[in-house]
Amino acid sequence: MKLVQINASKISRLRSGGMLNVWMPKNYEELQKFVKTKRKYIVLGAMSNVIIPDDEMNAVIIRLNKMNKIYFEQDQENTKTSNVNFLYSTPIKVNINNEPKYHQNQSIQSNTNNKYRVIVDAGVYLKALAIECAKHSYSGLEFFYTIPGTVGGALFMNAGAHGKCTYDCVEWVKVMDLTGEIHTLWRKNIQYEYRSANIPSGWTILQASFFLDLADKNTIMSSMLQFQEYRRKTQPTDFTCGSTFKNPANTSAWKLIKSLSNSDLNWNLISMSSLHANFLHNKGASSNTIKKFILSIQQKVFQKHKILLDAEVVIL
Ligand SMILES: Cc1cc2nc3c(=O)[nH]c(=O)nc-3n(C[C@H](O)[C@H](O)[C@H](O)COP(=O)(O)OP(=O)(O)OC[C@H]3O[C@@H](n4cnc5c(N)ncnc54)[C@H](O)[C@@H]3O)c2cc1C
Question: 4-63 has which fold?
């Protein structure tokens, strides 16, 4: 197993954090072998929503960049007319009935009426997936175009934008548990809500199936470009982690944050963005300083509005 040392302050979206010992497995078997060693590990995607500690981490950082395939398939009733072949990515037999107990008795109904399926490895970047879907005239994941994460990260966070969230069109998610066993979790058995899903801690998201509609390519592309333009005008894209806090019920985090004083919002090397008050802008602060800044914003908002903001960014 070849570990590569990577400096998080050079590649994480916030440009902060210390050295990481990164390993990129090529396939499920390699990952399974590693998981069975019981060595401590954390799976990360594009690092667009994490604050990485400044000190070197003990855990091995697993990144699934080499598991990055997209498979387009038409639904059974259309397979005869389909000229897109469905490929299955792994020789490992997956027991689709093997649902963990904690998932039982949960009842989010599936609304998979749509006819077209795309199966995507967790290491695929969301923008690349959105572009490939557009090329195939598959509609439903346009909102991924402007989210700078991977499919694994989006499924873990239930990422969303422009009124849609990741689980809106998920059929199933394939995961590896802490013993190396692979499970397929059907969407109706996954409890998901705004920016979270109950994928158990430490399990690795490997792949997911999405059910999509067919639409005109140009319409799909033009929605994606509109989303991009909207972002460009309203949100910073560099050295940030997107929304720092989740929106509380009945109001927006940015409104509460914006009500604070300038000195609360601007520290020496870090500030809340003037374009969007819930987006951090890091200008060279360490992860420790970023964490202190986030805590301070949380406290100031609480003092002023008696609302406790919940961090959306994952603090490792
Ligand atoms: C400019 C900008 C704009 C953004 N806009 C949005 C937005 O509109 N909507 C939104 O929801 N988010 C947004 N984000 C936040 C972020 O892009 C999303 O949360 C994204 O889904 C995170 O994916 P990632 O691959 O970067 O995950 P990471 O940041 O690498 O990890 C996030 C969490 O997911 C876990 N994880 C990642 N991959 C796996 C895996 N394969 N298996 C198990 N766990 C895994 C990690 O352990 C970690 O806990 C934005 C971020 C930026 C920088």
Answer: 3.30.43
